[in-house]
Amino acid sequence: MVKIAAIDCGSNSTRLLIADVSSGTLSPLYKTHQVTKTSEGVEADNNISQDAKNRLIKTLRGYLKKINSENVDQIIITGTAVFRDADNSEAVIEEIRKKLDLEIQIISGEEEGFLTSLGVLSSSNIKDNFFIVDIGGRSTELIYDINNRTQVNSLDIGVVSLRERSLTENPLDQSEILKANEIINQSLNVQISSDKAYMIGVAGTFTSIASIFLGQKKYDEEEIHMITLSSDWVSDFSSRLNKMSEAQIISNFPSLDPKRAKTLSAGVLIVTNIMKKFKFDELKVSKSDILEGLILKNY
């Protein structure tokens, strides 16, 4: 048995999982996340900003303290869409290497999708006919099964980039919503057969809305795991959310990380459009994702 730490440096949040793993079986020991908004402002000048870089480094430094206290055998750390897109990503990675002795590996959208599927399927009874959706800060991965082979479409849309392209502050007006829907559907211009498939949502948007659906006072990922949400509920929730201010979102949904309040409306708009496009009446939410996949791929 070995103890592994996996870190996902995403476009909106930076997450850590520490787990024991033996013969392909993973036992989680510690899991946390911080909304670092690493891609904030990238739409404007295609660079990771100084503030965003500082937030990321501060978060990683805190994670290292926890990792060192756990006597971890190996650290696996990846960077996704923001590092794929930003012009200065190599400079940021080099600074992190020098300051923290961490080596961030940039992975493609396709690799991100495959790793996510490994994590999701490891804790689900669904092994085929899956349609996994991973909504991030700058990309959305559609991961699906065709003839027992996993396929990935990585779309150029996420909660941060959609917010910066088309939305201002909550509450949203109808013209903003229409523009956002248009941008989302342009990104969804892909042909995928979803007949008889099971939709599974992973990562912050899905886990947040599942927690809200359950009325949690404090976020509990064990309770939200594989919960079912109907398309009608998601659509109604999106309409409610769009009429609320950021402060109202924070006060009304105590289990929500307050830093997610700014992008939650954008995320739920993406969910509603995906369910409509691919004709899903319901979805399940998974607590497992790329973090588990990173460990299972290597062990």
Q: How is this structure best described in words?
A:
This protein is an alpha/beta fold and 299 residues long. The protein folds into two domains: 2-109, ATPase, nucleotide binding domain (Nucleotidyltransferase, domain 5, 2-Layer Sandwich); 124-285, Exopolyphosphatase. Domain 2 (Nucleotidyltransferase, domain 5). 45% of the residues lie in helices and 23% in strands. It has 13 helices and eleven strands. The strands form two sheets. A six-stranded mixed sheet has the order 8-7-6-9-11-10, with helices on both faces. It has a five-stranded mixed sheet with strand order 3-2-1-4-5, with helices on both faces. A hairpin with a 2-residue loop joins strand 7 (140-146) and strand 8. The model has no long low-confidence stretch (mean pLDDT 92).
Q: Could you provide a short overview of the structure?
A:
The chain has 299 residues and is an alpha/beta fold. Helices cover 45% and strands 23% of the residues.
What brief labels describe this structure?
single chain, alpha/beta, Nucleotidyltransferase, domain 5, 5-stranded mixed β-sheet
What topology emerges from the helices and strands here?
Elements: E1 2-9, E2 14-22, E3 25-34, H1 42-45, H2 50-69, E4 74-79, H3 81-85, H4 89-100, E5 105-106, H5 109-122, E6 130-135, E7 140-146, E8 149-155, H6 159-166, H7 174-187, E9 198-202, H8 204-213, H9 221-224, E10 227-230, H10 231-242, H11 246-252, H12 261-277, E11 282-285, H13 290-298
Parallel strand pairs: 1-4, 4-5, 6-9, 9-11
Antiparallel strand pairs: 1-2, 2-3, 6-7, 7-8, 10-11
